[in-house]
Amino acid sequence: MDQLSDRIKSLPSSATLAMAAKARELRAEGKDIIGLSLGEPDFNTPDFIKEAAIQAVNDNYNSYSPVDGYVDLKEAVCLKFKRDNGLDYKPNQIVVSTGAKQSIANVAQVLLNPGDEILLPAPYWVSYSAIATLCEATYKEIPSSIENDFKITPEQLEAAITPKTKMIFFNSPNNPSGTIYSEEEYRALAKVLEKYPDIYILSDEIYEHISYGAKNFSFAAIPNMYDRTITVNGLAKAFAMTGWRIGYIGAPEWIAKACTKMQGQITSGTNCIAQRAAITALTESPERIQFMVEEFKERRDLILKLLGDIEGFQCNVPEGAFYVFPNVSAFFGKTFRGKTINTASDFAMYLLEEANVATVTGEAFGNSNCIRISYAASTEQIIEAVKRIKEALS
């Protein structure tokens, strides 16, 4: 252990992956665990995408792919950005990576020096802070709460900026809260950032298609933010392609070039078959995946109704993604079945051990009063899980 680098010793394990591993462990012991911890659609990849992958295999796509992605895939990404986001990118501004997580890590590695600061509106996805740590940067949380729908204000942003601030990460629709920033809200935050031309914005839009009425707005669509914004997206969530590992960025060309250089020394080009399938996924109309979004909306409404029957759960109404992020601080200090709950981590562990339901502590997402529950599960599993939670807390 002592021979390990300081870098790896300072890196936390992913809380979502750790909870999923613990759930698998308990299942192996014969326990009937319902997993609501992972952000993974429970749908199969749509057939039209699978057929494109099979065609690529039959067409003998088996050689190394270009580091930054096939040109025709990058052209498809540009078309998608124009169609869905009103963003004009050229293929030389696009880099395709092994999942949006690698896209984010690439951007952080090429822009951050040790001691630089990232601002993280909280709650935020667990890997943002870990990626900052890997870059030897520091990160500062900008808190929000359920009362203001987990959104930060321009005043909070202004107060958080220091001379060391180099980047801010936005994520809308948000993981874990499901919150979506409106165009008006993003423009108000951009007004603050106008005064600080050396701060770069990473806009993580991986859940853009999973929204329930609220329109998703891209930060880079604000004209004077375009040259400072890196738009990150991918195919995992909306297309039920988590294991295919395809993410991409649209960025100023000099940043895209740097990310290609970085990726060239780490993974090189992304899986060739997944890239060919991604062309089909991106060029087809988003209407083709709307059936999944409608199903997620039904599940959201169901889980909110069921959790609303448990005294102590305080939920907002998420406008996108497939998570609820209830405030469970009403349970802190209480004892159930001989176990005292003092933190969100205690609460999540209690639900795993006593209700056989896997969730994730909000502490991992920068909010110590909440837990994240994924409703990317069947209706039957959601009903059974909340029933078990209710019994464990009665």
What is the CATH topology descriptor of the largest domain? Aspartate Aminotransferase, domain 2
What is the residue-mean pLDDT, rounded to a whole number? 96
Main beta-sheet annotation: 7 strands, mixed
| CA-atom Rg in angstroms | 21 Å
Total individual domains: 2
Separation, N- and C-terminal Cα atoms: 43 Å
> Which architecture of the largest domain does the CATH hierarchy give at level 2?
3-Layer(aba) Sandwich
List segments where confidence is low: pLDDT < 50 over at least 5 consecutive residues: none
Side by side, the strands of the main sheet go: 2-8-7-6-5-3-4
Q: What share of the residues does DSSP label as strand, in percent?
A: 5-15%
CATH homologous group name of the largest domain: Type I PLP-dependent aspartate aminotransferase-like (Major domain)
Shape, per Cα inertia axes = globular
Strand segment count: 14
Structural class: alpha/beta
- CATH C-level class of the largest domain is Alpha Beta
Assign a percent range to the helix content: 25-40%
Query: What are the secondary-structure elements, in order, as H or E?
Result: HHEHHEHEHEHEHEEEHHHEEEHEEEH
* Number of helical segments with 4 or more residues: 13
Structure keywords:
394 residues, alpha/beta, Aspartate Aminotransferase, domain 1, Aspartate Aminotransferase, domain 2, 7-stranded mixed β-sheet, 13 helices, 14% strand, globular
